Predict the 3D structure of the following.
Amino acid sequence: MLSLKGVYKRYGSNEVVRGMDLELRPGECYGLLGPNGAGKTTTLRLALGLTEPDCGEITLLGEPVPKRAREARLRLGVVPQADNLDPDFTVSENLLVYGRYFGLSEGQIRARIPQLLDFAGLTLRAQSRIQALSGGMKRRLALARALVNDPDLIFLDEPSTGLDPQARHLIWERLRQLLGQGKTILLTTHFMDEAERLCNRLSVMDRGRLICTGSPQELVASQIEPQVVEVFGDGAGDWARDHGDRLCQRCEKTGETVFCYTREGEPILRTLEGREDLRYLHRRANLEDVFLKLTGRDLRD
Amino acid sequence: MRSKDFLLPRISRRFIHVWRRNLLVWRKLAITSMLGNLADPMLYMLGLGYGLGSLLPQVDGTPYITFLAAGTVCYNTMNSATFEALYSGFSRMQVQRTWDAILNAPINLDDIMLAETLWAASKSFLSGVAILVIIWVLGLSHSPLTLWIIPLTILIGLTFGSLGLVMTALAPNYDFFLYYFTLVITPMVLLCGVFFPVTQLPPFLQNVSMALPLTHAIELARSLVNNRIPAHAFLHVGVLIAYAIAGFYAALVLVRRRLLT
């Protein structure tokens, strides 16, 4: 479907992608997770043939990229991060005009539009102008537009960024439907719950490299202690010095919150009983913990 | 600059759908767009032509309004392609991100640039033919040779569409285009014989004028309006084609450098 082998890309002295190997399997949903500036969008641009790697090999849907990227994109759908729907057109016209770019006939596209609108929940909005749509509707239209050529593979660049929870859940449900139809999906995200819900496999990416790859469950099992106790409150720092550091495998402090990563939560919980000045949360480790462990807690903007 | 920016264009037949996209937008706004395109040059041509013309003896053996009409066809044709390539082109490239969306489809930047150049030429064709119709209706020329002005409008559109796209490829924002108008388009209008014969200029400026594409367009149009087969027709057409090709290639290289990074 898509393969990258030893791909490097630098801008000036800034190495954005540093030795990327990636192999997408048919029918899977593969997630690229990373903080801002990790190189996710550049990776997608490389895969689309919109920028040339400094070295390495890219194959998209059987075609060498960027040499025959245009031909490869015939069977690809792309949902970009930024909204670039055509504001001069209605919802259906957006689909019609976009379908033509794939060399589809007017008849073929018109026959497909009702089902695309239905999929996007925009049937009643067919004649609306783009400006009249909400953010969630626009994103669904962008998804419908990416499906106009019935692609085998779909790229989504941060599909739910900026959407409210209702809109995000609807997008996720639609993506699951597409996976059910046998489509292959590559998505970038920095939302852990999105990756955890959708992806069969994902890679955590940082500073131009894939740090680790696996299913969400595998990553949680292999990269991090199974339990987390979060302790908040004014006394959290003192508590960590007295108990946390001693009782857990790894103890991280940010502000007035202490994260205790541990194989066993009970001994820690016992030291918290009766402490009025502390609040705590005991939970299973999740993908976000893995992500923060691998990419650090520093801001990236 | 990378060597691949300089590759010759590779065009797919699907480029036509990018042109059709622009046509569909235009059709929605056709009436206001045509009125805007026509009203201004018509007022100038008629106002100056009859107003100023009544004070003047014949220019180059024709009434001033006829002289001005040939210049106006070319001037207006140049302007439509220029505005389309600059302002509308920049909107599609930078503001609406229309090109980004198209580049995710099986169409590359070479296809988009060809479609945009042809679209600019199509706008030129409409504006040029509109002025031509007025020339016919007002009886400013009865020459059947004026039919050759129709293909000429397309050639002028390709030339100035390509040159305009060079500016679009370089522009950081809309304000940038003012330089192009102040430094290129306005001097060209004054030097190339729209309002008065180039022979009125000092010899040095006449030489400058000969290097500018609009001069060659007007030489052709003026002969045709005056029912003469243009002397040096091949030279004039050649200069316009050369500008079109050079402009197209330069715009393509620059826009690749800008977008395909």
Q: What stands out?
A: Residues 64-95 of chain B form the longest helix (32 residues).
